[in-house]
Design brief:
Keywords: Signal. Helix content is 59%, strand content 0%. It has 6 helices and no strands. The two termini are 18 Å apart.
Length: 122
Amino acid sequence: MKFLIILALVALASARPDENYDRYEYFDVDELVSNVRLLKAYIKCFLGEGKCTPEGSEFKKWIPDAIQSNCGKCSDKQKHIVGRVIKAIIDNLPEEWNKLNAMHNPDGKYDEIMKNFLDKYT
């Protein structure tokens, strides 16, 4: 339920995983992607439309970097988690995805990179 931060993110750079992300290496993504209500709560946090959990606040700070670097600070396993979360949002909450994507990718310059990331990690 936590890793949604790195949600709407992604761009295709290969970088060493960041130690700040290590604690999410074993995140149970199934819990999050199977719970639309939980996805909505995190998205509201990221959009500044709702309360944030401590984890949500931390994730919110990482979103721009994750989008611009294609989750370059994430391990391969974390990229698969991020991909599944983004796909769940796109499939289940397309309006919310559009808002989040517009906030961090207003000119659409990361759209093709995002598509390639999702093709590879979902």
